[in-house]
C-alpha cells in the first residue's frame, strides 16, 4: 500500500481545462519545455489550468514516479502527507487522504480523493481524481477541501519519450485573496513539472505498474 497516486499535488488550486475549449485559454507560461494555460469561466473565479511537457524517459517511468509515495515529498510542491484508504490494482480504483502544507499564515488543507487509473487501447495512461465529502474524519487543524477534480495524462511518443499533461481544479476554501490564488495557479504546475523532470533524472529504480495499467 505504499504506492499511491500523486496527481493531487496540483490540488492546491486548479481546474479541468479539457472540459472546456482550449481556445479560451491563455498561454500563461512557456519556458523550459513546459507550457501552462489558464482561463476563467463565469461559474468559477479561480483560474482553470492545463500544463504539459515532454520527458526523455519511458512512459512507465513517469507513471511509476507519480505512484511512488515514498519519494513524493522530494518533488511535489506543498505535499505534506498521504494515506491510502483503499486501492484495487486490478480495477484501478483508489481512495486517498491527503494533507497539503500551505504557507504561513494560511491554514493547512486536507482532502479525501477518489480516483481511477485507466490504460486506453492506444497505450495512453490516464489518472482521474475527484474529492469526496466523506471517507475520513474531519480534523480541526485543517481546512477540508471538497471541491476538486483533476487528471494526469501520459502519452508515449517514443520508447524513451513521454508527453505528460496535468489538469486540476480545487476550491481552496477559507479566506485566501483571489489574486493570490490565481497567481499560484499559474506558477504551481510549472514548478511541479520542473521538479518532476529533475526527479526522473535522479531516480534509478522504478516499481512495476499496477495490473490495471498493464
UniProtKB/TrEMBL annotation:
Report any Pfam family annotated for this entry.
Answer: START
Is Signal found in the keyword set? yes
Entries under InterPro entries matching the protein: START-like_dom_sf, START_dom_prot, START_lipid-bd_dom, START_lipid_transfer
* Segments forming domain START: 40-198
Q: Which residues form the signal peptide?
A: 1-19
GO CC annotations?
Answer: cytoplasm
Keywords for the protein's UniProt record, in alphabetical order = Signal
- PANTHER family from the UniProt entry: PHOSPHATIDYLCHOLINE TRANSFER PROTEIN
Task: List the protein's name.
Answer: START domain-containing protein
Q: Which organism is it from?
A: Acinetobacter wanghuae
